[in-house]
Each structure stands twice: as structure tokens, then as C-alpha cells.
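Researcher: Sequence recovery benchmark, item below. Answer with residues only.
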């Protein structure tokens, strides 16, 4: 089955951001943004789970391209093209364990905040 061109490009660009974030030639500001984008993009866990109708896919369709656009603003075009070519060559999709941890911690914090909020109703 052939993937849509947009999704393929986002996946390749996210992988290129991951590669660029690990390279010394990438400016430090771009590295930070690159790590965040790549961690979110390559994580199997999303902030909004994909099984939630519409919202689950909208976060991927909005947050990833927006993060990649911001990342591209920080890095020179020839350097990013080099990372994009390398990402195209590497067919295996990396999994970001740091991304999994970040998203899981966000979910735990959200759940803890919700539990604390609901628990506080008990004492009113």
C-alpha cells in the first residue's frame, strides 16, 4: 500500500530533524527544537491518542508540521537537505524512548492534576 506523499514527507522530515539534533553542525537552538519535534514525532505515544475521533489525528497534522516548520527556520537549507537524504536512505523508523518518557510524564501529570482537582471537590 502506498503512503500519501504528505505523510511520507512529514515522517522523513521528522527523522531528518532527529538526525540533525544529534549533529554538532546544527545550531544549539535548532537542536533543542529538533529533539522535541523528533521525540514527539517518533514516539509511539501521542499527547492526544489517535483513537479519539478527529482530535487524535489533528494533533499529528498540526503539531508535527508546525514543529518541523519552526525547526527548518533554525537550520541552513543545505544542511537540512543532507539530513533529509540520509533519512530517506534509512528505511527503519527509529523509536524515541525519550519521547515515550516525555509523553508518558505529561499524561501522568495531567491525570494527577485531574485527580487532585476532583479530589478537592470532596472538601467543599
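Model:
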Amino acid at each position: 500500500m502506498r503512503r500519501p506523499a504528505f505523510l511520507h514527507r512529514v515522517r522523513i522530515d521528522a527523522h531528518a530533524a532527529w538526525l540533525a539534533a544529534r549533529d554538532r553542525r546544527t545550531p544549539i537552538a535548532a537542536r533543542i527544537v529538533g529533539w522535541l519535534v523528533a521525540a514527539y514525532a517518533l514516539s509511539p505515544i501521542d499527547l492526544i491518542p489517535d483513537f479519539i475521533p478527529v482530535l487524535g489525528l489533528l494533533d499529528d497534522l498540526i503539531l508535527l508540521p508546525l514543529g518541523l516548520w519552526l525547526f527548518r527556520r533554525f537550520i541552513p537549507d543545505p544542511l537540512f537537505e543532507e539530513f533529509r537524504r540520509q533519512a530517506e536512505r534509512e528505511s527503519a523508523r527509529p523509536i524515541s524512548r525519550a519521547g515515550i518518557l516525555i509523553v508518558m510524564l505529561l499524561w501522568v501529570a495531567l491525570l494527577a492534576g485531574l485527580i487532585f482537582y476532583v479530589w478537592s471537590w470532596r472538601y467543599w
